[in-house]
Design a protein that fits this description.
alpha+beta, globular, 39% helix, 22% strand, six-stranded antiparallel β-barrel, single chain, five-stranded parallel β-sheet
Length: 455
């Protein structure tokens, strides 16, 4: 061991090392000290250990300088510089987030009565007022201004609701939620239980019918301000509105927030969707083919992808049967399962769009509500709905898989077009009836309609 040390010492003594001044030593120590104090102040505990190491290095620097140990000075000073650089690089995203949070200032607001024209300190229900802010802030209907309070924010909570709609409720259905003056898309993620009105007991339920009371987990599309009903009646009561009929489907109260959202943070990545799209030289879109079984969706989708690939496009085809054999193999064909099937596909399509791909989907997707939810998940500008409108009579004549025959005899329950409804798209971007058309003509027509949209 001593021989190795001697060799290393002789090697370092032969190197022409630059001198390190007392100014360099003091500078490193001061930087380390102030950075450490800043981390303590903002409670950024993950960097404590590294910064304490910097202070120890600073102590070594002082000793080395006093005893004129230039070699150790040079090595340790470079180590300190490397450590500072490592801290900045490793923790840069988190430091930026913390600093941004520190930079946020309270908004000063003043109340100006509509008929007085001068500021007052308070107003009451029934009086029209103007709220004046000290700077430009994006505030709209449904926003909440508070004074010396910290209300709960989130996008997941459990609510107890009274179902008032003639159409039953199943998990996965999409509604508009109104809380106070805030209107926002919402999904009933899970029916926890319903209340037996005769006994008051909590009973398992897969569906909720008119005049039944149930506890449900609800997710909204963005963070909102809410409270438990027992703490704040205004911010704890809500209604659900049917997005098609605009009828009130349910009223309810918020029981509690779901804590899982507090532990989740969306991470912004340096490689963005725009970068990936530019790299591939295309505009990411989802071409959503919908129609009855046997309408020609899968055949059309397959040929459409071949055409796009021939044009140099980067694509991915998601077929209904194929996806049910993998990702969605745990789902059946009941209404709740169909809803979840489409939701998962929409999320997958969005991820693939983020990867810069053009996605083609071929699913019956029978419900207007679910296709609208898919459009919202994927994005209005990225969603192209293609309705393959081949009538059921023609589909039944084709019946390549023999499914219609089985459905007519009752072997297959919940079969779309026979024992389960198909809701025709309201405003599809493209509509095509494949009856009497060749595959080539059908694809030519769809490609012509998509040409401008795909860019």
């Amino acid at each position: 061991m001593r021989n190795i040390t001697d060799v290393l010492a002789r090697y370092l003594s032969d190197i022409n090392l630059p001198s390190v001044s007392i100014i360099d030593v003091i500078e490193i120590i001061l930087i380390s000290f102030f950075v450490y104090q800043f981390m303590v102040w903002i409670k950024f505990t993950r960097a404590y250990t590294l910064l304490k190491g910097l202070l120890v290095i600073g102590a070594f620097l002082i000793i080395a300088y006093i005893f004129k140990m230039n070699t150790i000075l040079w090595i340790v000073s470079r180590l300190a510089g490397a450590l500072i650089t490592a801290i900045v690089v490793i923790f840069q995203p988190e430091l930026r987030k913390v600093i941004e949070q520190l930079g946020q200032k309270k908004i000063m607001a003043s109340i100006i009565p509509f008929d007085a024209g001068k500021e007052v300190t308070e107003s009451s229900r029934g009086h029209a007022v103007t709220i004046s802010l000290d700077r430009e802030v994006d505030v709209s209907r449904g926003c909440v201004l508070v004074h010396n309070a910290k209300p709960k924010t989130g996008n997941l909570f459990t609510a107890k609701i009274l179902w008032m709609d003639d159409t039953h409720l199943v998990a996965g259905k999409n509604y508009l939620l109104k809380l106070g003056t805030k209107m926002i898309p919402a999904v009933v993620m899970n029916i926890k239980y319903k209340i037996d009105v005769n006994t008051g007991n909590e009973v398992h339920a897969d569906a909720i019918y008119k005049n039944e009371i149930a506890a449900c987990d609800i997710a909204v599309s963005d963070k909102i301000v809410f409270e438990k009903f027992k703490d704040n009646h205004a911010l704890g009561s809500m209604i659900l509105i049917d997005r098609i009929t605009n009828m009130t489907s349910a009223c309810g109260v918020i029981m509690h927030a779901l804590r899982r959202t507090d532990n989740l943070t969306w991470h912004e990545m340096d490689i963005t969707r725009e970068f990936r799209a530019q790299q591939k030289g295309q505009t990411p879109k989802t071409i959503w083919l919908t129609g009855l079984s046997g309408s020609g969706k899968s055949t059309l989708a397959n040929e459409l992808e071949k055409r796009l690939v021939a044009l140099g496009k980067h694509t991915m085809l998601l077929d209904g049967d194929n996806v049910r054999m993998g990702l969605n193999k745990n789902l059946g064909f009941k209404e709740a399962d169909r809803i979840e099937n489409i939701r998962r596909i929409a999320e997958v399509a969005k991820l693939m769009n983020d990867a810069g791909l053009i996605v083609i989907t071929s699913f019956i997707s029978p419900y207007v509500r679910d296709r609208r939810n898919a459009r919202e998940i994927i994005g209005e500008d990225s969603f192209i709905e293609v309705y393959v409108s081949t009538p059921v009579e023609e589909c039944e004549k084709r019946d390549v898989k023999g499914l219609y025959k089985k459905a007519r005899t009752g072997e297959i329950p919940n079969f779309t077009g026979i024992s389960s409804p198909y809701e025709v798209p309201e405003h599809p971007e493209v509509t095509i009836d494949t009856t009497g058309k060749s595959l080539e003509d059908s694809v030519d027509y769809v490609m012509a309609q998509l040409e401008e949209k795909l860019g």
